[in-house]
Amino acid sequence: MGWTSKETFTQLVEWGLIKKVDGEWTPTDRGTAEGAKMVDHPQYGPQLRWNPKTDLRKVAAKAAKDLLSATSIGEHFNVSNQKVNKVLAELGWVEQDVEGWIVTKLGRSKGGINLEASSGKMYAKWGTQILEDPGILGWFKPKVEEEVSVEKSLDEPDVEGDKDSDRDRLNKRYPPKYWAQDGHKVRSLGEKTIDDWLYVNKIVHAYEKTVVTVHGKLVPDFYIPAGVRQGSHAVYIEYWGMEGKTDYDYWPKEFADEFRTSDLAILETGQSFARGQDLEVG
Fold first, then answer.
1. Most exposed residue of 27, 167, 260, 282, measured as fewest CB within 10 angstroms of its CB?
2. Contact of 16 with 34, CB cutoff 8 Å
3. CA 107 to chain centre
4. CA neighbor of 114 nearest in space, from 76, 67, 55
């Protein structure tokens, strides 16, 4: 079909035929049904192989037919397709521009593909696995817990379930203690400066909003949704303001790597901003 090896793998992922498990490519149930299997190579170990009779053109046509549109997703959760698209944009999986709804790199990792409507506008379709994705369920089917500590629900977002995460440890050692002008309670004067700047400049933002990525759940300091300015993209702001403190030094290095490999627009700043350096958000 004229694709490079990388493009072929991207398509196979988008069609829901393969996935990565512990850093290794492996076929999904659908991929196995289409002729994929794992074989042991004497030199390179487990390798993904396909039946020579597998016709990718037929696979592509079948995959597109079986995928879900925003309307189908909306019918599943009993919401409108407009709301679905807004939620997908909020998750960073699609972006709206003059051509329509464009699937982002993060969205492609979730199984999204772009198709062209008869009008020429682009729209997105998704594999059925999206119906069980934590990001989607967080919006349309949130978990209801009978007993939740008020203190924990306000100050310690659950990032990794029952596992004590780096963010949990940070919450315990450096709890939020500064009130910003918009009512957000933040951890440092640097974060307060950023929050106040966003508020004074009438820029919609969230503080420590959980973001679901292919690498798991991340919690950036600030989140600015797409569309705050015409044509603007979603932006995440991380303030590295506690250098020199062991617990904090470990946390940003790990999270920064995950942010940068998740195709998210990240604005990183540090103590120089707190000392008066201005902040620009395009």
1. 282
2. no
3. 8
4. 67
Phi/psi region, residue 171 (left: phi>0; alpha: psi -120 to 50; beta: rest), is alpha
**Length in residues, the chain:** 282
Across 16-41, b (16+ Cβ under 10 Å) vs e yields bbbbeeeeebbbbebbeebbbeeeee
Residue 222 neighbours by CB under 8 Å, 6+ apart: 191, 194, 195, 198, 205, 206, 207, 236, 237, 238, 239
Strand partners, 45: 41
Q: Which of 59, 70, 53, 72 is CA-nearest to residue 18?
A: 59
Using DSSP, state whether 267 is helix, strand or coil. Answer: strand
Which pTM does this prediction carry? Answer: 0.55
Tell me the C-alpha distance between 190 and 177, whole Å.
12
**How many H helices and E strands in the chain?**
12, 16
Residue 274 has a pLDDT of 45
CB of 74 within 8 A of CB of 129? no
Q: Residue type at 71?
A: T
**Is residue 273 a contact partner of residue 193, using CB atoms and an 8 Å limit?**
yes
Q: How far is CA 197 from CA 7, 14, 201, 220, 269, in A?
A: 42, 40, 6, 17, 14
Return averaged pLDDT per consecutive 10 residues of the chain, 282 residues in all: 66 76 82 86 81 78 79 93 90 84 82 83 88 85 53 43 58 84 90 92 88 67 76 77 51 56 65 48 45
d(CA 257, CA 246): 18
